[in-house]
Design a protein that fits this description.
mainly beta, 7-stranded mixed β-sheet, 5-stranded mixed β-sheet, 3 helices, 40% strand
């Protein structure tokens, strides 16, 4: 008799359902997907999932970053390419963004879809020593459904995108 392990599936949800757990109170990871890339963050690092309609359309100084204002706060919202570079503009297909809290402040990442996932279903694995880099926001990989996701921290991603000169 063989035992088959159940493959976790990514359940893409509406914007409002994601942060309210959408019935998945056991989920502890948020998956932000764009262009076939899946970034995983601990749910405690994600402040909210917002619609891009709520973002100012001006891009200060040609940075590719839009500005999101909420209450007294303001933060950049960016679209990433496959190498964690900031795109010059946000593609139309990216309809919402995740608002991350980091040591450097808040940061919005535009994405195509978001979903919740239990850490136990993600099968997180650390990067091999030869692939670890202080400049990379990737801290591990995860096998999710039929894809590979990249486990990141909001602080490491913010440091990668907006390095400070010492």
């Amino acid at each position: 008799m063989s035992v088959r392990r159940r493959q976790p599936t990514l359940e893409f949800m509406s914007t409002n359902a994601v942060m309210k757990d959408g019935g998945r109170g056991d989920a502890d990871l948020l998956v932000a997907s764009y262009d076939g890339i899946h970034l995983l963050f601990r749910k405690c690092e994600v402040k909210s999932v917002e619609m891009l309609d709520d973002v100012e359309s001006s891009s200060p100084e040609g940075t590719g970053a839009l500005r999101y204002r909420h209450g007294e706060s303001e933060c950049p919202v960016v679209a990433l390419d496959g190498n964690f570079g900031i795109l010059p503009s946000i593609p139309a297909r990216r309809q919402h963004f995740i608002l991350l809290a980091s040591e450097k402040g808040e940061l919005g990442i535009a994405c195509d879809q978001t979903s919740l996932l239990r850490e136990a279903d993600a099968r997180l694995m650390p990067l091999p020593d030869c692939m670890q880099s202080e400049e990379s926001p990737i801290q591990g990989v995860a096998l999710i459904a039929d894809a590979i996701g990249f486990f990141c921290s909001s602080s490491a991603l913010a440091a990668c995108l907006f390095p400070t000169s010492e």
